[in-house]
Amino acid sequence: MDRFVALLMGFLSVVLVNNFVFTKFLGTCPYLGVSGRVDRALGMGLAVTFVTALSGTLTWMVDAWVLTPLHLEITRYICYIVVIAGTVQLVEMYVRKFFPSLYEAFGIFLPLISTNCVILGICLFLDIWGTNNLLEAIVVSTGTGIGFTVAICIMAAIREELALSDVPEALRGAPITLITAGLLTLAFMGFAGMIK
Amino acid sequence: MSASNGSTPGLYSKALFTGLWRENPTFRLMIGMCPPLAVTTAVKPALTMGLSVIFVLVCSNLVVSLMRNLLKPHLRIIMFTVTIATFVTICDLFLKAYQPRMSEILGAYVPLIIVNCIIIFRAEACASKSGPVVSILDGIGMGVGFTLALCILSAVRELLATGHIFDIQVMPKAFVPWLAMQMPVGAFVTLGLILGLINVLTRKRAASTEESEATASEPATGQLSATA
Hints:
The complex is a heterodimer. Chain A has one domain (about 25-195). In chain A, about 75% of the residues lie in helices and about 0% in strands. Chain A has ten helices and no strands. Chain B is an all-alpha fold. Helix content of chain B is about 70%, strand content about 0%. Chain B contains ten helices and two strands, in the order H-H-H-H-H-H-H-H-E-E-H-H. At the A-B interface, helix 2, helix 3, helix 5, helix 8 and helix 10 of A face helix 3, helix 5 and helix 9 of B.
């Protein structure tokens, strides 16, 4: 039971309290760039979640079972990148085969997921946070992806409204998006006291 | 290929200077937004970050440019990222050995240079198409432009959050530090306002040079907000 609670806390922590977009600024490029429509943002978020969960888990396994016993930590970043690129390739092929319309909608963004900071970020932070069992790695990396999805969907919804509002001319486009993101961050800081 | 024979000096200066302002990665292209927001709580880490990015950008541009004829279309991105990851590893180990404190502050953001869009973007847009000299100059220009952006942003944030820059007291003693500037919200809002300021300045300059065009576009935008 204790273990379950710990896992749940870890999950909530990466979704709300330590949300990668709001506290670590990872994945801000797609967050500020492509999020104009909620449905597309949701699709993007789900793709990222899938890749994050898969590659977070895989890199944790590679790190714990191959690199550390063989003392090859120096090649860590290169291994991470290769694992991530492989995972993205897999997802790309899968989506192209089974969801062609979604594939069309993503366009260039799908291959670019491999350079999304969230994914390499979770691989690195799993190591920094000292995650020491497989289940925890799976839960935390899935949670990170879901946190990203939550952030990007909220932003997309706000931007839909923002497109119709009367913003000062100089602040139109990117500046107002950044300021909105700042206010959202402030809102999410309210969760900070929830989990120590 | 033709770029490397040196017959067009204009090309070199263009490669060097576009990144500084006209295509400044942070302020103009809005790519690689993670470090400008994450490491700009103070000038020193921002400068370290900027120098690391210059190193990685120049080295990876050089290597990508040298192997540009070997690139396969479907393996391009992975070849770029593996090259970049190699140089980032070098950079990370160097920082750990000689600047342990900075390495600790920057933490995961040094390895995250690997996925910084600027570096892949330059590899794709410039280095994979042009000769080594142009690629190196382009790397320097883009890198310095990025570093400048980081320094401006971090100077504003450090000044308002602590009242000093580089441990030199700038604000009077009575200055009440704005702690919010050190939090994520400070990063987003500062960058947003700086971008807004740049918009105002460029628009003013454009308006003074092309008075007639500016007046012509004004009613159009007014109409747009009216329909909204």
